[in-house]
Amino acid sequence: MMPILFACDLDNTLLYSYKHKMNGDICVEMNNGQEQGFMSPKSYEMLYELLQRNVFVPITTRSVEQYRRITWPQGLEPTYAITTNGAILIKRSEIDEEWLNDSKKALAPYQSEITRLHTLLSSQDKYIRCRIVDDMYLFAYCKDGVNIEDCVHEHSEKTSLNVIASGRKLYFLPPSITKGMAVRKLKNALTPMKVVCAGDSKIDLSMLCEADIAMTPNIHLGRLINDAEVNICDPGSLFSEFILYQTLEILSRCSEKESTEE
Asked: pLDDT tens across 204-224, in order?
């Protein structure tokens, strides 16, 4: 039995863009020859330990291509990774076809709506770019000065997709494919003793609600989580370091319990 399943968002949770880089941070992602993603040295060290224990599963809205830009500590790529907001499982570096086929079936009722919105948003001046990600959901990036919450309200009333804002990014997500759905499928397959999840935005909420222990950077997101023990990041602490330290502590306790029961 797996001692814990540590399901974790990536961007602004474990990894940070060059805009937030601190002195001494380690580059873990290159994009077109430029340094893009970073981790603190302490986070890098703790993540390496979790990768060795094979309990860490990244769950991200990133596309497969964006996910594969990441360089993991000591080359220890996670055995399992979920991309495209739950739609695609990468298992031992390869896309799992059974999972993908299930996602395509779940997406089918929403395919025409994604296409319709892509055409609509691409014609509007308020978006810098708009694209369909891995054929699974729609993403748009708002221009400076555009009120993204107004965009959410405008589209939420007219679509069957879930519309969620994150910074200047706008996501149109099929409700049948979520990070929470991905965690449920992993729980059934891996049967962990305990599920630990960490995330920083409302896109992560369905995943956080599947956890035994959920970790967030602030109380505002924590208040939205049901049926889980919620750990809020300490003020002044780096979120990535907080969640990795807490997860290693949980893993240690679960391993001790498992040894005692044997």
From this structure: 999 999 999 999 999 999 999
